[in-house]
Amino acid sequence: MTEKILKIVTIVMFAITVVILGFFIFGGEVPDQVYTTPVYAASLLNWAYILFIIAVAAAVIFPITRLFTRPKQAMKSFIGLAVLVVVVLIAYAMADGTPMNIIGYTGTDNVPSRLIFSDTIIYTMYILFGGAIIAIFATELLRKIR
After folding, report:
1. Are 17 and 49 in contact (CB under 8 A)?
2. CA distances from 9 to 12, 13, 43, 47, 95 (A)
3. First-to-last CA distance in the chain?
4. Which of 22-26, 68-72, 97-101, 142-146 has the lowest mean pLDDT?
5. 18-37 pLDDT, tens per residue?
6. Assign residue 94 a region: left if phi > 0, alpha if psi is -120 to 50, beta otherwise?
């Protein structure tokens, strides 16, 4: 029963993502802008924030619930969560908050706090992407050896 609900929720979230992405790509542009600005950019970003919050909540809630049902497996989940926290801290340490010199930009987002936040997210993605590639190759290599 739980698997069926999870599949339905996943399909619904994927469908919403495809629709919002379609609006973003084919929805036109905001008139009188210096740079190309899709009309539905804010909607896409808000949906990405919602998905991020859902992912973080799942990453925290499931290990806690597993702690009460299967304590040994819960420790593995907490180790994974701790590794993720370390990766984010490393990315945060690599982030640069120096305001950029952007010609024609007059917005308020070119401040150290926003720049550090965006750098942290980008570096975290790079590290996790590299780890995923390494894991894929290591898994295949271990299969060939065995």
Report:
1. no
2. 5, 6, 20, 15, 35
3. 36
4. 68-72
5. 999 999 999 888 888 888 88
6. alpha
